[in-house]
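User: My instructor asked us to take a sequence, write out its structure as tokens, and then describe one feature of it. I'm not sure where to start. Here is the sequence I was given:
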Amino acid sequence: MSGGILKLGPSGHVDDFTRRNLPPLQQWPELRLDRPEFQYPEYLNAAVELTDRIVEKGLGDRVALIGNGRQRTYKELADWSNRLAHALVENYGVKPGNRILIRSGNNPALVAAWLAATKAGAVVVNTMPMLRAGELAKIVDKAEIGLALTDSRIADELVACAKTSRFLTERQTMMLSSTGGR
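Assistant: Let's start with the prediction itself. The structure tokens for your sequence are:
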């Protein structure tokens, strides 16, 4: 805040839906970001920092995830999420700022999907596996979701939602394997 006026920095989002739909400034909490530990570059991708930067530091062989009966290293997680991110951009046309819904249980595929969508610059909207089509439709329509990633074992309600959605179609629903990766 400068002189009591909050100034938003630049955005890497091509799709500005999220910025246009922020609450009014008077509803924001007081942001105290003047401490040294809160100084970040103008552009930062959290998913890259959480995976690729760890690998660049020579720590890629450390365990990043434990789930589905195995361990995955930072290198494996970075590779998996990078492959998925490239598919999101190249095969599904994801642009920075697009909203992607992720529907999955807590498993390594959820982590890889979140990292991939974030690496692609998308805004991730996570949902709980227990939501039904009608509940998902409200989220999809409010956030104008254009692509959904779902665990294939719980895809039925999302597919039903896509049949009546103004923004999401069945073709825009990508199935994820719960085991994923290699």
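For the description part of your assignment, you could build on this observation: Residues 74-92 form the longest helix (19 residues). Try explaining in your own words what that tells you about the chain.
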